[in-house]
Amino acid sequence: MAKWIDRFRLGWQGISQPPPLLSAGFAAGCLALATLARWCLSLIRPDVFFTPYFPAVFLATAFAGYRAGVLTAVASGVLGATLTFGVAATDSARLVLMLIYLLVCGLTIWVVEELQHRLKNKLSTIHAVLHQVLHDQPKIWASIDGRLRALSATDDLIAKVDGSGCDIKDLLLSELGPYGHVRFTLNGDPLFLPAKLAVSLALMLHELATNAAKYGAFSASRGLLQVSWTVAEDRLTIVWDETEGPPVGAIGQAGFGTKLLHSALRPFDGKTEIAYLKTGIHGILQCRIPRD
Fold it and tell me: pTM (2 decimals)?
């Protein structure tokens, strides 16, 4: 069960394409809920045939792609045309409404796919150009590749919520999920992050997670990570605490990642404190949450 929950979460966040069975189940669930909503509406207006199915088509497309959206649109069109809740049998007028409904669904599916495609292309183009320029410098490319992927995943999360931002837990799961959900715990109340702050935190969390995988808690068999966050007025505090990791060796000259950790929150009146303990990194990230 936990495996399917993880696959659903990754699919919903746009990190990976959900498997066909999960996509079909999600689309069927959307259709069932839409049909239930239509039955409830029929108690007031029995001639509402197709309107309740629009959200089902939209959600199926956003979650599983245009194929699932098309199948959901066709199935809902058939349901709307054939199911009767206290009205006469299917007539020519309802068939015309079905054709109009399918046309609007087609436009909706195209818009959703085009929006997601444009968002992904924005960073994909940058990714491809840099890869071409740095193909003979693998060390530099390796340091950039992961950061671009982190930005792309954050863009997908923001796109899920009308482009205005994302929830902090979804952001953390996007960065930490690949390392296994049994390796970390997240503690904090639901918190919506504005888009600009979410992007900055995504880069910082990616640096911390990558460091934990290479040298810290995630590199040890018993290593664990706890991330907690609190908000006081408009100030956000995130605590990153690694335990049971390998001893931290001598700290060399600050690289790009270290500089990023100490500078990314400055536009938000923030600061970062990093302590290199025997069992891993202990970090405190503090900043102001913008109102816009």
Answer: 0.51
Which CATH number, 3.30.565.10, 3.20.20.70, 3.40.50.720, 3.40.50.150, labels domain 138-288?
Answer: 3.30.565.10
pLDDT digits (tens, 9 = 90+) for 114-165: 776 565 555 555 555 555 556 666 666 565 655 555 555 555 555 554 455 6
HEC-encoded secondary structure of the chain = CHHHHHHHHHHHCCCCCCCHHHHHHHHHHHHHHHHHHHHHHHCCCCCCCCHHHHHHHHHHHHHHCHHHHHHHHHHHHHHHHHCCCCCCCCCHHHHHHHHHHHHHHHHHHHHHHHHHHHHHHHHHHHHHHHHHHCCCCHHHHHHHHHHHHHHHHHHHHHHHCCCCEEEHHHHHHHHHHHHCHHHEEEECCCCEEEHHHHHHHHHHHHHHHHHHHHCCHHHCCCCEEEEEEEEECCEEEEEEEEECCCCCCCCCCCCHHHHHHHHCCHHHCCEEEEEEECCEEEEEEEEECCCC
